Amino acid sequence: MLVVGIITLFLTTFMMAFYGYINRHSDEHDVSFFLSVGLISMVMNLCTNAAGGDALYLSWAYLGVDVVFLALGFAVSVEQTLGFYKSIVPWCARTFGNTALIGWQCLSFFIFPAGIAFYFAWGKDKPELSLECGKMGLWGALLWILLLWTILGIAL
User: Fold this and answer.
1) Are 70 and 20 in contact (CB under 8 A)?
2) What is the SS3 string spanning the chain?
3) CB 18, CB 10: distance < 8 Å
């Protein structure tokens, strides 16, 4: 059951990125409901994983919500949904294809205090590098928070 909870965490994150894309690229569609339910689902899933025991059966409900919301994306906007799925490969190529920055991005992501320090240290001298290090440092901090919450919830 714990595996379903962890898979649901990743699927909820994907669903929130999906609706974040639709929100950013469309002025005519309000997806704040989906984003707020996704955020609540993520927090409740983390708490459910921390509770353990019989509460882990709720992970199936969170999984169902995520699958339904991803399917409802086509009802919200077929054009934006297809645009999101088409943008995944170019985003990966752009993010991981820049060999000049990949080392700094990995360092900033996995050791997030270094990424945040690089952002402030190189802000005026190297604006592109400092921005990338800062973004990856913030994503790394978010990942560490989620991982710690998940691991401590499993261990305790």
Assistant:
1) no
2) CHHHHHHHHHHHHHHHHHHHHHHHHCCCCCCHHHHHHHHHHHHHHHHHHHHCHHHHHHHHHHHHHHHHHHHHHHHHCHHHHHHHHHHHHHHHHHHHHCCCCHHHHHHHHHCHHHHHHHHHHCCCCCHHHHHHHHHHHHHHHHHHHHHHHHHHHHHC
3) no
pLDDT in tens, 58-75: 888 888 888 998 899 888
Rounded distance, CA 67 to CA 60, Å? 11
Q: Is the pLDDT of residue 155 over 70?
A: no
What is the per-residue pLDDT for 137? 92
**6 vs 23: CA distance, rounded Å:** 26
Whether 132 and 105 have beta carbons less than 8 Å apart is answered as yes
pTM: 0.71
Q: How confident is the model at residue 153 (pLDDT cuts 50, 70, 90)?
A: low
